[in-house]
Amino acid sequence: MGPTWFKALSNEFDKPYFVKLKKFISTERQSHTIYPSIDNIYSWSRLTALDNVKVVILGQDPYHDVGQAHGLSFSVLPPTKVPGSLKNIYKQIKTDYPSFDPPSTGDLTPLAEAGVLWLNASLTVRAHAAASHSGKGWEEFTKQVLRCVERRDRGVVFMAWGLPAQKTIDRIGVDEKRHLVLRSAHPSPLSAYRGFLGNSHFRLANEWLRENHGQEGVIDWEILSSTRNNV
């Protein structure tokens, strides 16, 4: 775990729910493949330091097929094909920033390093079994992650896509006078046309960040563009 997060979350590690969660994960690993790999469960914390968070994007469950999950919500590493939800995220970035040329890969690491916290509500999953680790304690832990961000003096943007993410944001009590909460449908191909596509979230986030923190506070959403990276 990244040092800023380890310090902020240190009180959680000895709590009964987290001790029980660790035992559950250990037992699961004895008879099942678990994603992401053990060294990637907390990759979000190493790529996006607590004091560098500008935008929070909350997912639900890690991808559960081979070669997909690597610790960032919605992100996959090459050569894995870009998932449908991420394709729609790319579509919306292009709508907000027409010069964006969607890449052929799904690695969101550059945006994580730029201050976008790609966090899943549950941090592990059994291979080929969606939501198999939900309700085991991860949600309590990741709520504490979100509370760490919420308590910071510096305002951030929370993007809550889909009802589960919106309920999580409501439960932690985000102060919407200090932070910006953007809500819409989920980018999944099953729901994107019900309000995700056309939500202008990437443009709206930067407008708010620029107004509150100046030009240095915005996110360069086009950092992934294939015209920059030849991918």
From TrEMBL:
Q: Which GO terms describe its biological process?
A: base-excision repair, AP site formation via deaminated base removal
Keyword Cell membrane on entry = no
- Documented EC number(s): 3.2.2.27
GO annotations of cellular component type: mitochondrion; nucleus
UniProt keyword DNA damage, yes or no: yes
* SUPFAM superfamilies named in the record: Uracil-DNA glycosylase-like
Superkingdom of origin: Eukaryota
Domain Uracil-DNA glycosylase-like: from-to ranges: 46-209
List, alphabetically, the SMART domains matched. UDG, UreE_C
Q: Which reaction does it catalyse?
A: Hydrolyzes single-stranded DNA or mismatched double-stranded DNA and polynucleotides, releasing free uracil
User: What is the annotated localization of this protein?
Assistant: Mitochondrion; Nucleus
**Principal localization?**
mitochondrion
Pfam families, per database record? UDG (PF03167)
Q: Which residues form the active site?
A: D61
Q: List keywords of the entry alphabetically.
A: DNA damage, DNA repair, Hydrolase, Mitochondrion, Nucleus
Q: Molecular function (GO) terms listed? A: uracil DNA N-glycosylase activity
Q: What does this protein do?
A: Excises uracil residues from the DNA which can arise as a result of misincorporation of dUMP residues by DNA polymerase or due to deamination of cytosine.
Q: Which family does it belong to?
A: Belongs to the uracil-DNA glycosylase (UDG) superfamily. UNG family.
Q: What is this protein called?
A: Uracil-DNA glycosylase
Q: Which organism is it from?
A: Mycena rosella
Q: Which gene encodes it?
A: UNG1
